[in-house]
Design goal:
Elements: H1 8-20, H2 28-40, E1 51-56, E2 64-67, E3 71-80, E4 86-91, E5 104-108, E6 113-125, E7 129-134, E8 149-155
Antiparallel strand pairs: 1-8, 2-7, 3-6, 3-8, 4-5, 4-7
Helix pairs in contact: 1-2
Length: 157
């Protein structure tokens, strides 16, 4: 399976519906800045199918595949619906997430907390992106219903 890319306008709309609204608007300014930058740098050429928006959550220790092909991550919106602290992890793999060796690891705490991790030049993932939510940074104990809700902006490698 390959990436399912959308035109820049549709990708931005999907991201705002999924991530910005669920965060209560907390990441609106950051999201606008990220998409404006991507547009200026040519990552979003007018009319070109260049970006994919993928969402899932609450994440648990079960693998959640966000991309099963080589790609670049441009942004990750993370929303925490519950108070229990958990860790979001993203691994460079098309099928398996890693408990201890994930490429991206972010602690998320506090009910209603939102954040946007931005990679303006794109973070290359050679195989794909598989994510999970855990209760500790270095173990695979699942976060269950306490996991974060994640929306990712992905583009071509």
């Amino acid at each position: 399976m390959s990436l399912s890319l959308k035109t820049p306008t549709l990708a931005k709309q999907a991201f705002f519906r999924s991530a910005v609204i669920s965060s209560g608007g907390a990441i609106l300014g950051l999201a606008n800045a990220l998409f404006s930058y991507l547009n200026q740098q040519g990552a979003m050429p007018a009319g070109g199918p260049e970006l994919q928006i993928t969402s899932d959550g609450p994440l648990t220790s079960t693998e959640s595949v966000f991309a099963d092909a080589p790609c670049k991550i441009f942004g990750i919106a993370i929303y925490k619906p519950t108070a229990t602290a958990t860790f979001f992890k993203a691994t460079d793999s098309a099928t398996t997430s890693s408990d201890a060796d994930s490429e991206i690891r972010q602690k998320v705490a506090g009910a209603g907390n939102s954040m946007l991790l931005a990679y303006p030049k794109g973070m290359a993932m050679a195989a794909g992106v598989t994510c999970q939510g855990n209760t500790a940074a270095s173990t695979g104990t699942g976060s269950g219903a306490n996991g974060p809700v994640v929306t990712m902006v992905i583009g071509r490698p």
